[in-house]
Write a structure and sequence with these properties.
506 residues; 7-stranded mixed β-sheet
Length: 506
């Protein structure tokens, strides 16, 4: 049996469907600006998704309705079951008729709502049970693999045992804070929604007055110029009450209905999880956005046994995301300030990763590491008014990273556009909506990054004297990829470099 919303003659409709034989459904995932491509890669690799479509802020895909697999998406914000996706509305000049057109577009055929709601209920109940089982079960702590301890760890312990002892002593004395996990909430939905479209079943569904909902409506473009989100949400809510007999509940509804209308599309969906994908249960002290941290780690090419260092680790978010996804590597976080290290230690302990993540207090300008002893460096370089002094030290920090990174190693940095320009490490193609200075946007027809950056061309074509001088100093760092991402009101850039052998002096 296959459930679909019938296409409209004037505007073709794409909606969610469930094929009981093939077990596939249509979903979409919201993403921060610049993160869409990471979501695309994930759903293709982890879910073997088909019909993947990427637009600004959303990724649509068809996959098996398996909650445990869907929850593995790390670069997305929220996950939805798709009810319908249509072209943008062309509204009548009459305000009342415009309301009717929107209601007709959103509500559509009532039996399709009930069919999608049945699918959502099954997935939502499964997610709830999985969450309850994970909460009630005690996760065993992994044993430390000291017999296969890497040389970089032994070096740390041997040459800096006293400093480590002092830092760890202070970290262990740090008071254990109460968990800030978002509650999963209690699902009040007890009604089994019929999948059939007969009038008898629709009438039967209307008798379930305990089923509650709320509408989360967002509108922009031409629609927003004529109607507010509150007006549209109220209108859609009244229509659903009349159609199905449901009741509204703003604080803790059984179902949230997501409606987004703009000049590009009209989308309706049901959130699958109470808690957004971006909220990590294993992160107690939030620092860098977890989705961005995961995206940085995904670019680092972390392999088994790799030595990964974050020389400005802060709360350790990048290391946590990397260690959770790639557990068979060794991670070290370094920070000059004790306060963020205390928060990082609390996060590491909460995530039960003490055997994989070590912490040290030291300066990024003078790392306690041997030259060419690290495989991968991943770091969020602090920026903003609070860290204005970083600009003065940035060149020294880059040079120190270059020193400890082995030949062929990978460097992944999160930079402000100003620091990106200061680094002088530009690539020829920028993914997504990047606007870093001197970097042109370039994508292939398949949407892959253009990475054919030639070292001699990069050195020879520089017209800025200071940038050229700095590039010469950091001559071993070859830029490979650059991705523009949004950090709320701030635009930033993820820069990936490879360390190459020093070229001969001309």
């Amino acid at each position: 049996m296959e459930l679909r919303l019938e296409p409209n003659m004037a505007a073709p409709t794409v909606c969610c469907h469930l094929a009981l034989t093939g077990r596939t459904a249509r979903f979409f995932c919201t993403a921060g600006r610049g993160m869409e491509r990471f979501v695309v890669r994930e759903v293709k690799e982890k879910l073997e998704a088909e019909q993947v479509e990427c637009i600004l802020g959303k990724v649509f895909f068809t996959a098996e309705p398996d909650v445990s697999k869907l929850k593995r998406i790390k670069s997305g914000e929220r996950l939805f079951l798709l009810l319908k996706k249509e072209p943008p509305l062309t509204l009548s000049s009459n305000r009342g008729k415009g309301f009717s057109e929107i209601k007709k577009c959103i509500i559509g055929e009532p039996h399709c709502w009930l069919a999608a709601l049945s699918i959502w209920q099954n997935l939502h109940q499964t997610a709830k049970h999985e969450t309850e089982n994970q909460t009630s079960s005690k996760i065993p702590k992994r044993h430390s693999d000291t017999d296969h301890e890497p040389d970089v760890l032994k070096m740390f312990k041997k040459e800096h045992s006293l400093a480590t002892e002092n830092v760890c002593k202070g970290l262990q004395e740090y008071p254990n804070k109460s968990s800030h996990h978002n509650p999963t909430g209690e699902n009040k939905l007890s009604v089994t929604v019929p999948v059939h479209s007969s009038e008898e079943n629709l009438a039967s569904s209307n008798s379930h007055q305990d089923f509650s909902f709320r509408v989360s409506c967002r509108c922009s473009g031409a629609v927003a110029k004529r109607y507010t989100s509150e007006e549209l949400g109220r209108m859609i809510g009244i229509a659903l009450i009349k159609q199905f007999g449901w009741k509204t509940e703003l604080r803790a509804p059984d179902l949230e209905i997501f409606v987004h209308l703009n000049d590009d599309q009209s989308v309706v969906g049901f959130p699958l999880l109470r808690v957004p994908l971006a909220n990590r249960a294993y992160i107690r002290n939030a620092g860098l956005r977890s989705t961005v941290a995961w995206a940085m780690a995904s670019l680092a090419e972390i392999c088994v046994g790799a030595h990964v260092v974050d020389p400005m680790c802060g709360f350790g978010t990048i290391l946590l995301e990397a260690a959770k996804e790639w557990p068979k590597a060794y991670y070290f976080g370094i920070d000059i300030n004790e306060s963020p290290l205390q928060a990082a230690y609390d996060n590491v302990r909460t995530a039960i990763l003490e055997d994989r993540i070590g912490l040290l207090q030291a300066s990024a300008k003078k790392l306690p590491l041997l030259s060419e002893s690290v495989d991968i460096i991943i770091s969020d370089i602090p920026f903003g008014k609070k860290f204005i002094s970083i600009k003065e030290d940035f060149t020294d920090i880059l040079h120190e990273m270059e020193r400890v990174l082995r030949i062929g190693g990978t460097l992944v940095l999160l930079l402000s556009l100003e620091l990106y320009k200061q680094a002088g490490l530009h690539v020829s193609g920028i993914l997504n909506n990047a606007r870093p200075p001197t970097a042109a946007r370039g994508e292939t027809s398949g949407g892959e990054m253009m990475t054919n950056v030639n070292y001699e061309e990069r050195q020879g074509n520089s017209s800025n004297t200071s940038t050229e001088s700095q590039s010469l100093r950091l001559r071993c760092l070859l830029p490979v990829e650059s991705h523009s991402v949004s950090l709320g009101v701030t635009e930033a850039c993820i820069l990936k470099c490879k360390k190459i052998a020093t070229p001969p002096v001309q």
